[in-house]
């Protein structure tokens, strides 16, 4: 059951830059058991926001959002399609 | 100062809640992710909880372990247990099996309350009754049980209220025995300095099983303030939590401060936090500056403490401006001393072991008389107990304490006395270094520096060389994406040592 990942390479690059992930990332890989503590969640969040020039509203940021690559990609995709035009630039780091 | 007799307040911990209920029954007491209680509701939940404990056969002096995480039922069970005369033992849900097994064997509990998800795991490591949080929640919100009637004589100030597990430097975690009167004294002495107000909203995003988190309950109740509990999984939305509840006070360890600073950068307007307190591990000067930049209205209070006496010193608000690096002066009615290796007091300015006397010194370690006698030393003539903290530091002429590190963090290298904390502070002073940790040398390897930075290791070392003497300079800098943290948010130096000993990749 090896299908092409449902996310793009940019997404996986961000995750790999922060988390010590196994060579093969499955949609249901448990990110928490691969080093995703709360500080790393914030890092992942901010790097994804930078990489895709979007802002994930806090209401979408639950523990479930960061549970697996699939869940995180789903949230990101949802926000990208909703805000494709109106996303405010993320500034002020 | 010689008045270091053990002052008895005559109060038990539950009296703090009773006073708050009498003063402000309808004010918000505690909220978590799913809802909140007023003081009257918290009191009712504690009453129901006490009857529920009685129904489980819990008696005075029995241990009740709570591993429920940052939920309001934790607070209800805390007061229920104390009201019932039993001993409350908070355990971090993040504690791994290996430690959990030995901690549960050591605490010898009559009941373990844990998150529903890991009740199965907990049952595998203990033969004691294990109850899921859902069961407790149902009991607390169900029809109130008939009052239990006193399980025994009401607890007095000498009775044990809490066992607080604290990780030692090597062995398994050990518990500090915290009597009611001592907890009440410590909570009040801290409250006198920090002055939480009735209209404050206090965010406890630290684990409630960590004493810094746990005492937020007592401090909030003393003030009649509103305590908001944050779970670690919800840290990404901390700024929204702060805004939704109108949080005014935030206790932080460095990792939490870093999260707040980074998250605040995502928001255009800043919530009205008025006070940050810090202990556990000290905020670096750049982190303090970043907090001030992101939360311009907030004051910052540096503190120093160890579980064995709860809190040692508290600085004035924004005291770092006049005395950078100071963690403040001794709590009122208590004493801080700096001792040489023979146990004799050292004059101001000299570095030695930090020792503590006063009514906040706890009653020793649970079931560990030898270790207790080593750290809680009783003068054979006066009976006065001096707590030897194992931490090193110095006092200035005005009694302000400066922390230099754990005994294990201080070492000699090329004839120089070096403190890991000193190198860490110098490394964090290098622009571009977000966090740093230093491991003292061992027989097998030299001193090791870890840094979280975009800079090249050589650049970190070059900048560090401008800040500390050559003999103190580590030979190499290991760059990490982040520092590993313990469950309490402190740098996990044991894991760093493992990284060195068994390099990955």
UniProtKB/TrEMBL annotation, chain A:
- Could you tell me which residue ranges the Carrier domain spans? 2-80
Q: Write down the superkingdom of origin.
A: Bacteria
Q: What is this protein called?
A: Carrier domain-containing protein
Source organism: Actinoplanes nipponensis
Q: Name one Pfam family in it.
A: PP-binding
From TrEMBL, chain B:
Q: Keyword Ligase, does the record have it?
A: yes
Record carries keyword Ribosomal protein: no
Task: Read off the InterPro entries from this record.
Answer: AMP-bd_C_sf, AMP-dep_synth/lig_dom, ANL_N_sf, ATP-dep_AMP-bd_enzyme
Question: Where do the AMP-dependent synthetase/ligase domain residues begin and end?
Answer: 18-366
Instruction: Give the GO molecular function terms.
Output: acid-thiol ligase activity
- Membrane-spanning regions, if any? none
Q: Which UniProt keywords apply?
A: Ligase
Lineage, top-rank taxon, reads Bacteria
PANTHER family, alphabetized: LONG-CHAIN-FATTY-ACID--COA LIGASE (PTHR43767), NONRIBOSOMAL PEPTIDE SYNTHASE PES1 (EUROFUNG)-RELATED (PTHR43767:SF1)
Q: What is this protein called?
A: AMP-dependent synthetase and ligase
User: Which species does the entry assign this protein to?
Assistant: Actinoplanes nipponensis
């Amino acid at each position: 059951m090896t299908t092409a990942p449902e996310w793009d390479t940019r997404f996986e690059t961000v995750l790999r830059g922060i988390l010590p992930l196994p060579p093969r990332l499955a949609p249901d890989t448990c990110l928490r058991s691969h080093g995703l503590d709360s500080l790393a969640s914030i890092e992942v969040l901010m790097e994804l926001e930078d990489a895709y020039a979007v802002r994930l509203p806090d209401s979408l940021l639950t523990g479930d959002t960061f549970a697996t690559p699939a869940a995180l990609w789903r949230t990101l995709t949802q926000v990208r399609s909703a805000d494709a035009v109106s996303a405010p630039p993320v500034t002020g780091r | 100062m010689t008045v270091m007799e053990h002052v008895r307040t005559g109060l038990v911990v539950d009296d703090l809640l009773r006073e708050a209920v009498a003063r402000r029954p309808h004010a918000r007491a505690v909220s978590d992710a799913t809802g909140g209680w007023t003081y009257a509701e918290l009191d009712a939940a504690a009453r129901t909880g006490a009857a529920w404990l009685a129904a489980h056969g819990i008696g005075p002096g029995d241990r009740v372990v709570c591993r429920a995480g940052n939920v309001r039922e934790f607070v209800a069970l805390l007061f229920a247990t104390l009201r019932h005369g039993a001993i409350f033992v908070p355990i971090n849900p993040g504690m791994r099996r290996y430690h959990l097994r030995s901690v549960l064997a050591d605490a010898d509990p009559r009941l373990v309350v844990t998150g529903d998800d890991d009740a199965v795991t907990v049952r595998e490591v203990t033969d004691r009754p294990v109850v899921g949080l859902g069961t407790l929640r149902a009991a607390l919100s169900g029809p109130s049980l008939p009052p239990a009637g006193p399980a025994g004589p009401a607890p007095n100030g000498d009775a044990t209220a809490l066992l607080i597990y604290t990780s030692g430097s090597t062995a398994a975690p050990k518990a500090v025995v915290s009597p009611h009167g001592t907890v009440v004294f410590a909570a009040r002495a801290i409250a006198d300095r920090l002055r939480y107000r009735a209209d404050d909203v206090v965010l406890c995003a630290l684990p409630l099983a960590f004493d810094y988190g746990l005492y937020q309950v007592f401090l909030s109740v003393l003030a009649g303030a509103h305590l908001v509990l944050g779970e670690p999984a919800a840290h990404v939305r901390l700024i929204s939590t702060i805004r939704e509840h109108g949080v005014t006070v935030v206790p932080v360890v460095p990792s939490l401060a870093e999260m707040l600073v980074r998250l605040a950068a995502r928001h255009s307007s800043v919530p009205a936090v008025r006070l940050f307190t810090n202990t556990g591990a000290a905020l670096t000067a750049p982190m303090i500056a970043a907090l001030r930049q992101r939360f311009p209205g907030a004051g910052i209070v540096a503190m120093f403490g160890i579980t064995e006496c709860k809190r040692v010193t508290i600085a004035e608000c924004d005291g770092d401006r006049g005395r950078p690096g100071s963690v403040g002066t001794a709590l009122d009615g208590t004493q801080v001393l700096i001792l040489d290796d023979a146990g004799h007091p050292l004059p101001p300015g000299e570095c030695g072991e930090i020792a503590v006397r006063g009514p906040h010194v706890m009653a020793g370690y649970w079931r560990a008389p030898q270790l207790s006698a080593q750290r809680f030393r009783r003068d054979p003539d006066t009976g006065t107990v001096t707590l030897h903290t194992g931490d090193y530091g110095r006092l200035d002429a005005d009694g302000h304490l400066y922390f230099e590190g754990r005994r294990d963090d201080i070492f000699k290298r090329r004839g120089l006395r070096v403190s890991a904390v000193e190198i860490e502070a110098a490394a964090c002073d290098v622009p571009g270094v977000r966090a740093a940790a230093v491991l003292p040398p061992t027989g097998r390897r030299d001193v090791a520096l870890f840094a979280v930075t975009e800079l090249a290791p050589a650049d970190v070392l070059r900048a560090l060389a401008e800040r500390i003497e050559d003999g103190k300079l580590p030979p190499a800098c290991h760059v990490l994406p982040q520092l590993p943290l313990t469950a309490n948010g402190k740098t996990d130096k044991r894991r760093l040592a493992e990284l060195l000993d068994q390099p990955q990749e």
